[in-house]
């Protein structure tokens, strides 16, 4: 491109000239409405739309011809307006204060959400493992979260249990600090999440301090006997190794409470050096934690009789006053790897002692078991980042059983999968039992439902929105808490506590973690705290537990998911759509009636997109694929406008039809029906299919549409060609790992395809050329081409975009007339007062369009 004027180029402000309508372009010779038929009648026209010559015609004929030309020009303008309307964003049709749906952000959120349910486990079957109990050698193991019978309420801890505890307990980090605090204060309030080994740690602490106290008292008693003095320590106390007359460590009935324990310590029967374990439950209606004065009274009573006590509480808002006081401390969980190694060694040593002399040594068996535990398939089956003591015990037993050839590999994997299911069952078992048991005349407890339901609501919200910002999950959890409370007590409006949240407790109770990351806000990425489960198996386990085992909870969950479908943030509504699709697989009849069909017929595009995503997620399951494809096909053929829109979006994912041809046939039926009423959404989803491996087939079908005898099919092909130039990679790429385009970015899809798949360059260029050389699509195609050119020279543009443009432009601008049009477009961009294209960038774009073999001639002509 010269500084003056390119050879043969039009003036700066001239419009692009009409190209020769008989130009030979074999691959996409266009049939533009009735233009060819007009030619056959001898009606060749100039650029002004009038006959090229009026010689020899009467004035009346000339006037009639002028009127016909005006009518045809008006019709062309209307056709161009309709085609421009078809290229609009189909997700921006609703008018609301939330604004249009961001397709690129939704696409990225969709990919992140699907990772929660495709982690290498068989999560797409979404089945609960059915292994419930197993014999490993002569050891019986219960693989169920439910506990048989009631726990020990009160009484001495057997010496055998303490002896086994000393042998097998794995101390958590900070254990010495906890022991020193108990020894100094006599009383310790120990807070932790259930199942983390807090009770074992409490018993171990009491065993240590009481054993030390007994040994110290005996030394003093022996000294008194030798010297004949009296230090006031009393008689000699039994040591831990002597046969016990009674135990040094006692469990206390939690119903007795702190006050009754303090009162009981004043009796003469209390033996010095005794330890007491009290496990408090603070979740019942009206249950209040002991106050600081009561704890001081208990500590004084313990000091008076030289005894010790540990009060175990569950972390949470109710226990915060206790843990923040002078006696409160948090109990960290035991390290997983050390815990697992210890349990493995125990089981292998026990089996080795009973085995024959020719059995492999324990060290060899232990190495084989640890190698088995690190196998990817086994780790995916476990699906937990950290193991609780009971989980580590079960996992170690399974590993040891397989190494010793008493457990099959299938039973090993099934048992591993049961760990997450067991945790989910514990979380939800009998949550509202306390509310159901409260007296009918109880008043002032409407807020208790919210307190009880918030932890489970948070776990459900985290299963649905895992990977989103912490604030988004917390907000969704409060919405679900409200729905659960209303469902439980519909006659009373539940109170919503405003300052009861405890993020640290939520993380501990839900086995979650926070990570620093980025979220998308109005197209820009900002820093945020993202929240995830500590284990890939937990999201599916939680959703399965809620949907399969707690049917009354379905109604509030469905209402809650509908609320999330209206959330304007893609990180929320798209994640919810993927999770809802998984729930529908569990009971498709219920999910279709309550979620899919109502949302597919909704008036807003976001709700319909939500329904389409649910259908695609269900189509990912072989058991439901045939039914989903039948439903989507029926929507497209016989459905209302809303259902046809939803069907088109579902087809764009690539799973809702048996083949690519079937998907394109369905999209064409939707696009051309009712004079192209749904052409915008149909063309969008044809372009989405281009990101899949079967791109050449899609381009051939688009070319066939442009050659079709019916104008609506021609329009569909032209609109799709224009949309191809306007669509970016991150708007269509849902499975980055399976696509040749690689990672998501904001490159134009056409340039990404040209750079990564050279075989698509010719068909794409032919389609674009057709759109640029068809009267009704020329203007909108020129605007799209301008957008394509500008996108390639933006700041921070990747090298792939420039390579794609270098591959596409020479084929698109192969003829002199095409390059003249490009020259005119570049000059228009250079003269744009609002967004001027720099001369250097315009020149660089020009030379990208000129083949290397023709550059010497161009430079010679232009100096």
Please, could you describe this protein's structure?
Residues 2-57, 119-132, 134-140, 143-151, 229-245 and 859-863 have low confidence and may be disordered. Helices cover 56% and strands 6% of the residues. Among the domains are: 100-116 and 443-586, no CATH class; 171-330, Rossmann fold; 336-428. A 6-stranded mixed sheet has the order 3-5-6-7-4-8, with helices on both faces. The chain has a two-stranded antiparallel sheet with strand order 1-2. With 863 residues, the chain is α/β, with parallel strands linked by helices.
| Total beta-strand segments | 10
Largest sheet: 6 strands, mixed
The amount of helix comes to: 55-70%
In the sheet with the most strands, the strands line up as: 3-5-6-7-4-8
Distance between the termini: 10 Å
Oligomer: single chain
Instruction: Report mean pLDDT, rounded to a whole number.
Output: 80
What's the alpha carbon Rg, rounded to whole Å? 37 Å
Structural class: alpha/beta
- Poorly predicted residue ranges: 2-57, 119-132, 134-140, 143-151, 229-245, 859-863
Strand content: 5-15%
Number of alpha- plus pi-helical segments? 36
Q: Looking at the structure, what is the overall shape? A: elongated
